[in-house]
Design brief:
The protein is mainly beta. It has one helix at residues 53-57, and strands at 2-8, 15-23, 27-37. It contains one helix and three strands, in the order E-E-E-H. It has a three-stranded antiparallel beta sheet, with no helix packed on it. Strand 1 (2-8) and strand 2 (15-23) form a beta hairpin. It is elongated and about 35 Å long.
């Protein structure tokens, strides 16, 4: 079963959002998206906080 998750790997002001795709235990792929966000606006569940209009569109 495939799993898709989004994550941050940096605590800088404009951190890139990474996409992680796992296809079982052996196949893990991680790619940087073209989206950037402030880590203060990122929630623990891997989604942007819905506090501003810009975060709602991400």
């Amino acid at each position: 079963m495939a799993t898709i998750k989004f994550s941050l790997q940096s605590k800088s002001k404009n951190a890139p959002i990474y996409l992680r795709l796992s296809l079982g235990r052996e196949k893990l792929y991680k790619r940087k998206t073209s989206l950037f966000i402030n880590p203060e606006n990122w929630s623990k569940n891997g989604q942007p906080k819905q506090t501003t209009a810009k975060n709602k569109t991400v």
